[in-house]
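Extended Data, panel c. Modelled sequence:
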Amino acid sequence: MISFKPLCLYLSAIKCPPRRIAPLMALTLLVCATGIYPNLANAKDRLTILTNWYAQAEHGGIYQAKASGGYDKEDLDVSIHQGGPQLNGMQLLLAGEADILLGYDIQVLKSLENKIPVVVVAASFQSDLVGIMARDTVNSLSDLKDKTILIATPGRTTWWPWLKKKYGLTDEQVKPYTFNLQPFFSDGQTVQQAYPSSEPFQAIKSGVPIHFLPLKQEGYPPYGLAFVVTRETLERRPEIIKRFLKATFEGWRAYLANPSQANAAIREANPNMSEEQLDFGYSQLKSMGVVDGGDAKTLGLGIITDARFKATFDFLTGEGLLNPNVNYHEALDDRLIKDLHIQ
C-alpha cells in the first residue's frame, strides 16, 4: 500500500494550495502504479572489471559469479570487459574506464614507484602461473643451463632476473618469444615461457611430449592475477568492493566444484576458446592448487599477505628492478578479503 503521509507533510511545509494537493497525489499514484518512477532503493551498484586477457579458465570465478547470479545477489551490476594485447589496463583503470583491474602485484609496485596510487585488494591465485615448458626429458629448472630459452619482452624484467640468478643462467641463452610455438617444436634444446592452460595444451595437441615447470614451485614470490583498484575507489566504495570480492570468490569456490556454467559463459564471451582447452585449463588450475592452496587453505580464498608482498619487494629491489624507497605496504590492503574468509 502506498502511503501519502510524507507527501502530505512536504506539501504542507511548502504551503501548497489545497486545491493542488489532490491532483499531485493522483499523479504520484499514477507514476508509482505504472512504474515510470525509478525504484532507487533497488538500484544495483555498478562495477566494471577489466581482465588481463580474453576470457579463459583463469577468469572462471568471475564468469561463474556473473552467470550464476552471484553478483546480483550482492546487489551488483558487474560488467566484464576483456583485456588483450593492445590494451593498457592500468591506463584504463586510471582513466575511470574500469573500476577494477585484473593485474599483477609487480605492476602495482612499479606504479607506486611512479607515484600512481593503486592498490591490490585480493589475488585470484596464490602464485603466479608462469612457468617453463620443456621437453619431457627436462625434469627441473636446474636443467636449463644448456638450453635456449624463449621469453617475451615483459618477462625479461619480471621473472627472468629471478630465474637467471637462482640457477646461474645467462642472457646469452635468451631469444624472443613471439607466441609462435614452431621454434620450440623444431628444436629439442629449446625451452620457453608458458602458462599452464595455453602453451602446454597446444604442445600436447601437436603430439609433443612436454614437462611444464611452474616457477612458483621453486619460490618465485608474486601472486597471480591480482584485483587492483585505485586508492580513491577503495576509500570511496569499500563496501561495494567487498561485496564484489565476496561474490567473486564464492564464484571461484563454485567453479572449482563444477565449471560447466562459467565455461559456457566464457565461450560465449570468447568464441575462439574451445571447450577442450577450457577443460584442460580447469584441470590445470585445480591440480596446481593455485586458488585454494597456500595461505588460502587457512586464511580464505583471495588472501594476500604483507609477507608475500615483502618477498616480491625484496626480489625486485635486489635485482635493481624497483626503487628501494617504495613503501611496499601501500601496495596492498588486505582488510576486505581477510574479513570475508571464504573457504
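The longest strand covers residues 118-125. This feature is highlighted in the accompanying rendering.
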